Amino acid sequence: MRKVLAGVRLKRLREERNLTQQALASAIGISLSYLNQLENNQRPLTVSVLLKLGTAFGIDLQLFSEEDEARLISDLREVMSDPAISETIAIAELRELASNMPAVGRAIVSLHRRYGRALDQLAALAARVGDDRQGDVPLPPSTAFEEVRDFFYARHNHISQLDEAAEHIAAEMKMPIGRMGTAIAMRLFERHQIRMEIDNMLSAEMQRHFDPVARLLRLSAHLRQGQQAFQLATQLAFLEQGELIDDLAAAGTFTNSQSQSLARIGLANYFAGALIMPYAAFLAAAEDARYDIELLGQRFGVGFETTCHRLSTLQRPGAHGVPFFFIRVDRAGNISKRQSATDFHFSRFGGTCPLWNVYEAFAQPDHILTQVASMPDGRTYLWIARSVSRGQGGYRAPRKTFAVALGCDIRHASQLVYADGLDLSNPAAATPIGAGCKICERPACPQRAFPPIGQPLNADPNRSAFAPYAAMR
């Protein structure tokens, strides 16, 4: 154990026992001046003094434990990372709080956890009525990413102004489908005097770097041709559609500048996808291929995930495609992308369902999995899922792996090649899934992790409503 400054805790111990400084000093066999220095953090609390305190008062030595302090600091850091807290709290301040006023620190952690549970309950109630609102009180988004997701969700993941602008430019340039990178690079050079350069020093994470002074756009050498075209189109979006993008972002109900900046990037990416995969041409190809994702990716020169993303945007009035839901998750269940062209409810606070085939995709890399799944409200959906992976270099370089899923209401399933051979009309053939244990009302689910919020767990071990949960504890 290291020596620690514990003046406030010593004072609290003395006050709880109604002792004077002299009485406490005498009880543990130290001088009054030494105790005064300890209480004023002028001297550290040593192991020998700590042992004397334990012998004299029978206190729990965990009160002065370094591990207990580190645990509290970790809990406080988690609290302060909440986007609802706008102040930046230094680690040194948290350490001071945990060291000198641990009871106050624990109270803060407890209050924040109660706040989190209250948000979960509010989310569960809102989910049960099919809305992200409870009364007139909107649910606060957890991050800037959530605000931007809500921005696109409210527009059914279709931004008509950008789609039309991208389609007009694609037609004007007579861009070759599937080989648009060169055409976009030429437009950047001819209209904006911007040169493109492939840079081996840029990481796959950086992808694109634009130097406005040198008029140089550097792209990472890790990018495939389709990804290069996408990054070129994104830069073109900022240059030629910047005013429109600013107006669209300003129209969003964002609470801070970070969310608005992220929305601008999202809108530029939307334009890039619409330029590489022009609406009318892409919709016609999708219907002709019966929404075969791999065939569409090959024709337009893009990857599986990018194709899925574009398929979820085909909601032009008078020229609708199948209304898809699109989601991307990692192995831990974190949802990093979530878009819906219709009203499918993605849980924001309750997690997702382990019975959903999007998680099975990790166990079968590069294989397309299909699933007919029913929700607790009785609606049934067809889901297509596959894992996607990207690397950043050689043998030892880390790789990112996600699972992406594309889903649609069962009434549209016959339009998809993936429905061939599936029993779409038999309710018993559908896998029962939910939006997450916290808001799912299926009590007999073998994968239930905990009871729904607001529903008590039966304490009778012989009649527990959530026996699978209890058995796995």
Automatic annotation (TrEMBL):
Task: Spell out the protein name for this chain.
Answer: Short-chain fatty acyl-CoA regulator family protein
Q: Which InterPro entries match?
A: Cro/C1-type_HTH (IPR001387), HTH_RamB (IPR026281), IrrE_HExxH (IPR010359), Lambda_DNA-bd_dom_sf (IPR010982), ScfR_C (IPR018653), TransReg_Diox_bact_type (IPR050807)
Q: Which family does it belong to?
A: Belongs to the short-chain fatty acyl-CoA assimilation regulator (ScfR) family.
Which Gene3D superfamilies is this protein grouped with? lambda repressor-like DNA-binding domains
Keywords of this protein's UniProt record, alphabetized?
A: DNA-binding, Transcription, Transcription regulation
* Top-level taxon: Bacteria
Under the heading SUPFAM superfamilies, the entry gives: lambda repressor-like DNA-binding domains
Domain HTH cro/C1-type per the UniProt entry, residue ranges: 10-64
Q: What is the lineage of its organism?
A: Bacteria, Pseudomonadati, Pseudomonadota, Alphaproteobacteria, Hyphomicrobiales
